[in-house]
Protein backbone atom coordinates (compact mmCIF):
# COMPACT_ATOMS: atom_id res chain seq x y z
CA UNK A 1 0.00 0.00 0.00
CA UNK A 2 2.82 2.40 0.89
CA UNK A 3 4.54 1.56 -2.36
CA UNK A 4 1.35 2.35 -4.29
CA UNK A 5 0.92 5.69 -2.51
CA UNK A 6 4.53 6.59 -3.18
CA UNK A 7 4.13 5.87 -6.89
CA UNK A 8 0.90 7.85 -6.97
CA UNK A 9 2.53 10.84 -5.34
CA UNK A 10 5.51 10.63 -7.66
CA UNK A 11 3.10 10.60 -10.60
CA UNK A 12 0.96 13.50 -9.32
CA UNK A 13 3.76 15.77 -8.14
CA UNK A 14 5.02 16.87 -11.58
CA UNK A 15 1.41 17.37 -12.72
CA UNK A 16 0.74 19.66 -9.78
CA UNK A 17 3.94 21.61 -10.43
CA UNK A 18 3.05 21.86 -14.12
CA UNK A 19 -0.44 23.15 -13.32
CA UNK A 20 1.00 25.97 -11.22
CA UNK A 21 3.47 26.86 -13.96
CA UNK A 22 0.74 26.86 -16.62
CA UNK A 23 -1.48 28.96 -14.39
CA UNK A 24 1.27 31.56 -14.05
CA UNK A 25 1.99 31.60 -17.79
CA UNK A 26 -1.68 31.90 -18.76
CA UNK A 27 -2.34 34.62 -16.20
CA UNK A 28 0.72 36.61 -17.26
CA UNK A 29 -0.26 36.37 -20.92
CA UNK A 30 -3.88 37.29 -20.18
CA UNK A 31 -2.87 40.49 -18.36
CA UNK A 32 -1.13 41.67 -21.52
CA UNK A 33 -4.23 41.29 -23.71
CA UNK A 34 -5.46 44.68 -22.54
CA UNK A 35 -8.13 45.10 -25.24
CA UNK A 36 -10.26 42.32 -23.73
CA UNK A 37 -13.16 42.80 -21.30
CA UNK A 38 -13.64 46.55 -21.77
CA UNK A 39 -9.92 47.14 -21.31
CA UNK A 40 -10.16 46.51 -17.57
CA UNK A 41 -6.82 44.61 -17.51
CA UNK A 42 -4.98 47.81 -18.41
CA UNK A 43 -6.44 49.57 -15.36
CA UNK A 44 -5.97 46.64 -12.98
CA UNK A 45 -2.36 46.27 -14.12
CA UNK A 46 -1.68 49.94 -13.37
CA UNK A 47 -3.33 49.59 -9.96
CA UNK A 48 -1.51 46.44 -8.84
CA UNK A 49 1.83 47.62 -10.26
CA UNK A 50 1.62 50.98 -8.49
CA UNK A 51 1.65 53.02 -11.70
CA UNK A 52 -1.17 55.43 -10.85
CA UNK A 53 0.82 58.45 -9.75
CA UNK A 54 -2.09 60.89 -9.87
CA UNK A 55 -3.36 63.71 -7.68
CA UNK A 56 -6.90 63.52 -9.08
CA UNK A 57 -8.78 60.22 -9.22
CA UNK A 58 -12.10 59.69 -10.95
CA UNK A 59 -14.13 56.76 -9.67
CA UNK A 60 -17.49 55.38 -10.74
CA UNK A 61 -19.10 52.95 -13.14
CA UNK A 62 -19.24 53.01 -16.96
CA UNK A 63 -20.39 56.64 -16.92
CA UNK A 64 -17.11 57.53 -15.26
CA UNK A 65 -15.16 55.34 -17.67
CA UNK A 66 -16.54 56.97 -20.87
CA UNK A 67 -17.41 60.51 -19.66
CA UNK A 68 -14.38 61.92 -17.79
CA UNK A 69 -11.31 62.59 -19.93
CA UNK A 70 -8.28 62.73 -17.58
CA UNK A 71 -5.90 63.82 -20.34
CA UNK A 72 -7.93 67.00 -20.88
CA UNK A 73 -8.00 67.65 -17.14
CA UNK A 74 -4.22 67.29 -16.85
CA UNK A 75 -3.48 69.37 -19.93
CA UNK A 76 -5.62 72.29 -18.73
CA UNK A 77 -4.89 72.20 -15.01
CA UNK A 78 -1.38 70.79 -14.86
CA UNK A 79 -2.64 68.27 -12.29
CA UNK A 80 -2.13 64.54 -12.87
CA UNK A 81 -5.39 62.62 -13.27
CA UNK A 82 -6.49 58.98 -13.71
CA UNK A 83 -9.92 57.46 -14.35
CA UNK A 84 -10.59 54.15 -12.53
CA UNK A 85 -14.23 53.82 -13.60
CA UNK A 86 -15.27 50.14 -13.66
CA UNK A 87 -17.96 49.11 -16.14
CA UNK A 88 -21.22 47.65 -14.89
CA UNK A 89 -20.66 47.92 -11.15
CA UNK A 90 -22.28 50.28 -8.62
CA UNK A 91 -20.37 51.67 -5.63
CA UNK A 92 -19.71 48.39 -3.80
CA UNK A 93 -17.07 47.21 -6.26
CA UNK A 94 -15.98 50.75 -7.09
CA UNK A 95 -14.97 51.05 -3.44
CA UNK A 96 -13.04 47.77 -3.64
CA UNK A 97 -11.05 49.07 -6.61
CA UNK A 98 -10.33 52.31 -4.76
CA UNK A 99 -9.16 50.50 -1.61
CA UNK A 100 -6.80 48.30 -3.63
CA UNK A 101 -5.47 51.35 -5.45
CA UNK A 102 -4.71 53.06 -2.15
CA UNK A 103 -2.75 50.02 -1.02
CA UNK A 104 -0.34 50.05 -3.98
CA UNK A 105 -0.34 53.70 -5.10
CA UNK A 106 0.19 57.15 -3.67
CA UNK A 107 -2.53 59.06 -1.85
CA UNK A 108 -4.59 61.31 -4.17
CA UNK A 109 -5.40 64.90 -3.32
CA UNK A 110 -8.86 64.91 -4.90
CA UNK A 111 -11.40 62.17 -5.64
CA UNK A 112 -14.14 62.94 -8.15
CA UNK A 113 -17.05 60.51 -7.69
CA UNK A 114 -19.20 59.95 -10.76
CA UNK A 115 -22.73 59.36 -9.48
CA UNK A 116 -25.69 57.89 -11.35
CA UNK A 117 -29.20 56.75 -10.53
CA UNK A 118 -28.08 53.24 -9.55
CA UNK A 119 -24.85 54.07 -7.68
CA UNK A 120 -26.25 52.53 -4.49
CA UNK A 121 -27.95 49.58 -6.15
CA UNK A 122 -26.55 46.16 -5.20
CA UNK A 123 -26.24 43.68 -8.03
CA UNK A 124 -25.95 39.98 -7.11
CA UNK A 125 -23.74 38.87 -9.99
CA UNK A 126 -20.12 39.68 -10.80
CA UNK A 127 -20.48 41.48 -14.12
CA UNK A 128 -17.55 41.06 -16.54
CA UNK A 129 -16.01 38.55 -14.11
CA UNK A 130 -13.26 37.53 -16.56
CA UNK A 131 -11.47 40.78 -15.76
CA UNK A 132 -10.43 39.23 -12.44
CA UNK A 133 -9.14 35.87 -13.73
CA UNK A 134 -5.40 36.59 -13.86
CA UNK A 135 -5.34 38.21 -10.40
CA UNK A 136 -7.30 35.73 -8.27
CA UNK A 137 -4.31 33.77 -7.03
CA UNK A 138 -1.58 36.41 -7.06
CA UNK A 139 -3.77 39.04 -5.38
CA UNK A 140 -6.18 36.87 -3.44
CA UNK A 141 -5.68 38.90 -0.25
CA UNK A 142 -7.07 41.93 -2.07
CA UNK A 143 -9.86 40.27 -4.05
CA UNK A 144 -11.09 37.18 -2.22
CA UNK A 145 -13.29 38.77 0.44
CA UNK A 146 -14.97 41.39 -1.80
CA UNK A 147 -15.50 39.12 -4.82
CA UNK A 148 -17.02 36.25 -2.83
CA UNK A 149 -19.89 38.61 -1.97
CA UNK A 150 -21.04 38.18 -5.59
CA UNK A 151 -22.11 35.18 -7.63
CA UNK A 152 -19.25 34.11 -9.87
CA UNK A 153 -16.26 32.60 -8.05
CA UNK A 154 -15.84 30.17 -5.17
CA UNK A 155 -13.09 29.89 -2.55
CA UNK A 156 -11.20 27.23 -4.54
CA UNK A 157 -10.70 29.63 -7.45
CA UNK A 158 -8.37 31.65 -5.24
CA UNK A 159 -6.22 28.69 -4.19
CA UNK A 160 -6.11 25.94 -6.80
CA UNK A 161 -4.42 26.53 -10.17
CA UNK A 162 -6.27 26.53 -13.51
CA UNK A 163 -9.77 25.59 -12.27
CA UNK A 164 -11.06 29.16 -12.67
CA UNK A 165 -10.19 28.90 -16.38
CA UNK A 166 -12.32 25.79 -16.83
CA UNK A 167 -15.11 26.57 -19.28
CA UNK A 168 -13.56 29.90 -20.28
CA UNK A 169 -12.47 28.59 -23.67
CA UNK A 170 -12.99 31.94 -25.38
CA UNK A 171 -10.58 33.51 -22.90
CA UNK A 172 -7.98 30.82 -23.47
CA UNK A 173 -8.36 31.23 -27.22
CA UNK A 174 -7.67 34.94 -26.95
CA UNK A 175 -4.64 34.28 -24.74
CA UNK A 176 -3.15 31.84 -27.22
CA UNK A 177 -3.87 33.83 -30.38
CA UNK A 178 -3.59 37.45 -29.31
CA UNK A 179 -0.30 39.26 -29.71
CA UNK A 180 -1.53 42.77 -28.91
CA UNK A 181 -0.67 44.53 -25.69
CA UNK A 182 -2.15 47.89 -26.67
CA UNK A 183 -5.28 49.34 -25.08
CA UNK A 184 -7.96 51.82 -26.10
CA UNK A 185 -8.03 53.20 -22.57
CA UNK A 186 -5.86 56.22 -21.82
CA UNK A 187 -5.40 56.87 -18.11
CA UNK A 188 -8.43 54.60 -17.67
CA UNK A 189 -10.66 56.62 -19.99
CA UNK A 190 -12.07 55.42 -23.30
CA UNK A 191 -14.02 57.60 -25.70
CA UNK A 192 -16.74 55.86 -27.72
CA UNK A 193 -17.37 57.34 -31.16
CA UNK A 194 -20.85 55.84 -31.43
CA UNK A 195 -24.20 57.09 -32.66
CA UNK A 196 -27.54 56.86 -30.85
CA UNK A 197 -28.80 53.30 -30.46
CA UNK A 198 -32.14 51.69 -29.55
CA UNK A 199 -31.44 50.86 -25.87
CA UNK A 200 -33.92 53.38 -24.47
CA UNK A 201 -36.62 52.46 -27.00
CA UNK A 202 -36.27 48.78 -26.11
CA UNK A 203 -36.42 49.56 -22.38
CA UNK A 204 -39.60 51.59 -22.84
CA UNK A 205 -41.19 48.71 -24.75
CA UNK A 206 -40.46 46.42 -21.82
CA UNK A 207 -41.17 48.77 -18.90
CA UNK A 208 -43.30 51.85 -18.42
CA UNK A 209 -40.71 53.22 -16.02
CA UNK A 210 -37.97 51.95 -13.72
CA UNK A 211 -37.62 52.42 -9.99
CA UNK A 212 -34.07 52.02 -8.67
CA UNK A 213 -33.71 50.25 -5.34
CA UNK A 214 -31.18 51.73 -2.92
CA UNK A 215 -29.20 49.22 -0.87
CA UNK A 216 -28.78 50.54 2.67
CA UNK A 217 -25.47 48.73 3.23
CA UNK A 218 -23.99 50.26 0.06
CA UNK A 219 -25.31 53.71 1.00
CA UNK A 220 -23.70 53.48 4.45
CA UNK A 221 -20.45 52.30 2.87
CA UNK A 222 -20.46 55.38 0.65
CA UNK A 223 -21.02 57.67 3.62
CA UNK A 224 -18.04 56.04 5.35
CA UNK A 225 -16.00 56.46 2.16
CA UNK A 226 -16.67 60.20 2.20
CA UNK A 227 -15.85 60.56 5.89
CA UNK A 228 -12.67 58.48 5.60
CA UNK A 229 -11.33 60.56 2.73
CA UNK A 230 -12.19 63.80 4.46
CA UNK A 231 -10.34 62.58 7.56
CA UNK A 232 -7.29 62.02 5.36
CA UNK A 233 -7.69 65.54 3.94
CA UNK A 234 -8.59 64.21 0.50
CA UNK A 235 -11.07 66.47 -1.26
CA UNK A 236 -14.22 64.63 -2.40
CA UNK A 237 -16.28 66.08 -5.24
CA UNK A 238 -19.59 64.48 -6.28
CA UNK A 239 -20.53 64.84 -9.95
CA UNK A 240 -23.65 63.76 -11.82
CA UNK A 241 -22.62 63.94 -15.47
CA UNK A 242 -25.11 64.69 -18.29
CA UNK A 243 -27.87 62.16 -18.88
CA UNK A 244 -30.26 62.36 -21.81
CA UNK A 245 -33.54 63.93 -20.66
CA UNK A 246 -35.76 61.03 -21.75
CA UNK A 247 -33.54 58.65 -19.79
CA UNK A 248 -33.91 60.84 -16.72
CA UNK A 249 -37.70 60.73 -17.04
CA UNK A 250 -37.62 56.93 -17.32
CA UNK A 251 -36.40 56.59 -13.68
CA UNK A 252 -39.51 57.06 -11.54
CA UNK A 253 -37.66 57.84 -8.26
CA UNK A 254 -34.86 59.90 -9.77
CA UNK A 255 -35.76 63.09 -7.89
CA UNK A 256 -35.45 61.37 -4.53
CA UNK A 257 -32.06 59.94 -5.55
CA UNK A 258 -30.76 63.38 -6.55
CA UNK A 259 -32.05 64.79 -3.26
CA UNK A 260 -30.16 62.04 -1.43
CA UNK A 261 -26.93 63.11 -3.16
CA UNK A 262 -27.62 66.73 -2.21
CA UNK A 263 -28.18 65.69 1.40
CA UNK A 264 -24.87 63.78 1.52
CA UNK A 265 -23.18 66.83 0.03
CA UNK A 266 -24.71 69.20 2.59
CA UNK A 267 -24.06 66.95 5.57
CA UNK A 268 -20.39 66.52 4.68
CA UNK A 269 -19.84 70.04 3.30
CA UNK A 270 -18.56 68.75 -0.03
CA UNK A 271 -19.40 69.85 -3.58
CA UNK A 272 -22.14 68.19 -5.61
CA UNK A 273 -22.07 69.30 -9.25
CA UNK A 274 -25.22 68.21 -11.08
CA UNK A 275 -25.21 68.38 -14.89
CA UNK A 276 -28.70 66.87 -15.21
CA UNK A 277 -30.12 70.14 -16.56
CA UNK A 278 -27.11 71.09 -18.63
CA UNK A 279 -27.77 71.75 -22.32
CA UNK A 280 -25.89 68.55 -23.19
CA UNK A 281 -28.67 66.50 -21.56
CA UNK A 282 -31.16 67.76 -24.15
CA UNK A 283 -29.18 66.90 -27.28
CA UNK A 284 -29.22 63.33 -28.56
CA UNK A 285 -26.19 64.00 -30.76
CA UNK A 286 -23.94 63.84 -27.70
CA UNK A 287 -25.09 60.37 -26.58
CA UNK A 288 -24.98 56.78 -27.81
CA UNK A 289 -27.71 55.78 -25.36
CA UNK A 290 -29.72 57.51 -22.65
CA UNK A 291 -27.01 57.35 -19.99
CA UNK A 292 -23.72 57.34 -21.93
CA UNK A 293 -22.05 60.18 -23.79
CA UNK A 294 -20.25 59.55 -27.06
CA UNK A 295 -16.76 60.93 -27.73
CA UNK A 296 -18.05 64.35 -28.76
CA UNK A 297 -20.28 64.59 -25.69
CA UNK A 298 -17.60 63.34 -23.30
CA UNK A 299 -15.05 65.93 -24.41
CA UNK A 300 -17.63 68.72 -24.23
CA UNK A 301 -18.72 67.62 -20.76
CA UNK A 302 -15.13 67.31 -19.52
CA UNK A 303 -14.45 70.87 -20.70
CA UNK A 304 -17.53 72.12 -18.84
CA UNK A 305 -16.45 70.24 -15.72
CA UNK A 306 -12.97 71.80 -15.88
CA UNK A 307 -14.51 75.27 -16.27
CA UNK A 308 -16.86 74.64 -13.33
CA UNK A 309 -14.08 73.42 -11.07
CA UNK A 310 -11.89 76.39 -12.02
CA UNK A 311 -14.74 78.77 -11.15
CA UNK A 312 -15.15 77.06 -7.79
Report on the architecture of this protein.
- With 312 residues, the protein is α/β, with parallel strands linked by helices.
- 47% of the residues lie in helices and 7% in strands.
- It contains 12 helices and 5 strands.
- It has helices at 2-32, 40-48, 62-67, 70-77, 91-104, 140-147, 169-177, 199-206, 216-231, 245-250, 254-268, 295-311, and strands at 56-59, 81-83, 110-114, 235-240, 271-274.
- The protein has a 5-stranded parallel sheet with strand order 2-1-3-4-5.
- Helix 4 (70-77) runs parallel beside helix 12 (295-311).
- The chain is globular, with a radius of gyration of 22 Å.
- The model has no long low-confidence stretch (mean pLDDT 92).
Strand order of the largest sheet: 2-1-3-4-5
Number of strands: 5
Note the run of SSEs as H and E. HHEHHEHEHHHHEHHEH
Rg is: 22 Å
What's the assembly state of these chains? single chain
> Could you tell me how far the N terminus lies from the C terminus, measured between alpha carbons in angstroms?
79 Å
- What can be said about the biggest beta sheet? 5 strands, parallel
Shape assignment: globular
Gist?
By secondary structure, the protein is α/β, with parallel strands linked by helices. It has helices spanning 2-32, 40-48, 62-67, 70-77, 91-104, 140-147, 169-177, 199-206, 216-231, 245-250, 254-268, 295-311; strands spanning 56-59, 81-83, 110-114, 235-240, 271-274. It contains twelve helices and five strands.
Strand and helix map with partners:
Blueprint: H1 2-32, H2 40-48, E1 56-59, H3 62-67, H4 70-77, E2 81-83, H5 91-104, E3 110-114, H6 140-147, H7 169-177, H8 199-206, H9 216-231, E4 235-240, H10 245-250, H11 254-268, E5 271-274, H12 295-311
Parallel strand pairs: 1-2, 1-3, 3-4, 4-5
Helix pairs in contact: 4-12
